[in-house]
Amino acid sequence: MSIELVDKLTELLKQVTGFIYPNEIQIHWTLLIVVYPYITGLVAGAFILASLVKVFNVKEVQPTYRLAMLTALAFLIVAPLPLLLHLGHPERSYEIFLTPNLSSAMAMFGFVYAWYLMLVLLLEIWFEYRKDMVLWGKTEKFPMNWFYKILSLFSTDISEKAVAFDKKAVKAITIVGIPSAFILHGYVGFIFGSVKANPWWSSVLIPIVFLFSAIVSGIAIVLLLYMIITTSRGKQIDMKCLDRVASFLLYAVIVDFSLEVLDFIHRLYESEESITIITTMVLNKLSISLIVMQILLGMLLPLGILIIVKIFRFNQELRKLLYFVSAIMIQIGIFSTRWNVVIGGQMFSKSFRGLLTYKMEIFGLEGLLMAVFLLILPFLILTVLLKVLPPWGKNNETNTT
After folding, report:
1. 3-state secondary structure at position 351
2. Are 181 and 48 in contact, with CB atoms under 8 Å apart?
3. What average pLDDT score do residues 381-394 get?
4. pLDDT tens digits, one per residue of 124-147
């Protein structure tokens, strides 16, 4: 045995508490697998918020509709990157389309992703912006005029009949998109929940908890972006819209929190042989990320703030501040939830007698810097999308279609 191998094994053993089998000495799903469900959750949540306008006719949140769609697209473009970087041979990922394995939930992600991106999200955005792109193709200077003509597929019909068809198409696609968004993120929870050998993941509530936490994070990120972008443009924030979005955020947080409490009570009620090691893990390894960041900072505190704002009618500036702070804390809490599920589920041994400590890398394909880059990249893409397809129109006017 080489000296380098001995040193590496010694370093790994320093992270072990109690008894761990030799083949369990390393955590295989690292920070990138935490980033992946977090990003897909933002996609699903943003789309659900957008669907409130077209399907449920909630007019108050109309100012956030196009922003929510573009936000979902920006994050969806980045969604597969954490998985590709985690693969040993990402250049072979295309083979899942050539040799589909219908029995593999992991392999089916490629088809779910392609369906949601190509046939749902892009189509809805195209029909929503088609009339605008036709007009921009006539009014913009070269080369942007040709760019919009190509994007509109050289469409020229902006008659009332054509625009009415666009609106019907958007509504129909949105109706199809709602279950598609559920499948996109719900299957991530399904993957974890179906691992019966792991008591931290093996729960029928995991897919549902993942789904509602996704809705929470998506609504919160759109609320944040709407406040930041509107203020940066020198425009007034529509308080009716902001209050309505915050109300939906409050309802989603209440449901999500109730489901997480129910899952926790269910685990305690079962009291299987794993309850001892899970309790030790929660109180030691995950005490900060779960108790402080997920439950206290990311759930109870913003929930309390949103309830107080709902009961007491504070002035607009104070409401804006409280909404902003709550949305940021919710993002911290949801990311901590993903961390606790992915990393926490790999910390205890199959013998239920030992715990590992996850040592995060800084550099490398699965290090901290790469994870931060992947979290920043959607915002860079969104910046480009907002320039190309401004939700407020080319004349800096808020769109009301």
Report:
1. coil
2. yes
3. 91
4. 999 999 999 999 999 998 899 999
| CA dist., res. 362 & res. 246, Å (int) | 36
Compute the residue count for the chain: 401
What φ, ψ does residue 249 adopt, rounded to 5°? -65, -40
Report the distance separating Cα 362 and Cα 97, nearest Å.
33
The listed range with the strongest mean pLDDT (76-85, 263-272, 320-329) is 320-329
Rounded Cα distance, 191 and 181, in Å = 16
**Highest mean pLDDT out of 109-113, 184-188, 366-370:** 366-370
Question: Which DSSP string corresponds to 297-338?
Answer: IIIIHHHHHHHHHHHS---HHHHHHHHHHHHHHHHHHHHHHH
CA separation for the pair 285, 274 (Å, rounded): 16
pTM above 0.85, yes or no: yes
Element (H, E) at 356: strand 354-356
Helix, strand or coil for residue 16? strand
Tokens for 311? 């009961």
Nearest to 338 by CA among 112, 185, 179: 185
| Beta carbons within 8 Å of 328's beta carbon, 6+ residues apart | 224
Burial 25-64 (b: 16+ CB within 10 A, else e): eebeebbbbbbbbbbbbbbbbbbbbbbbbbbeebebbbbb
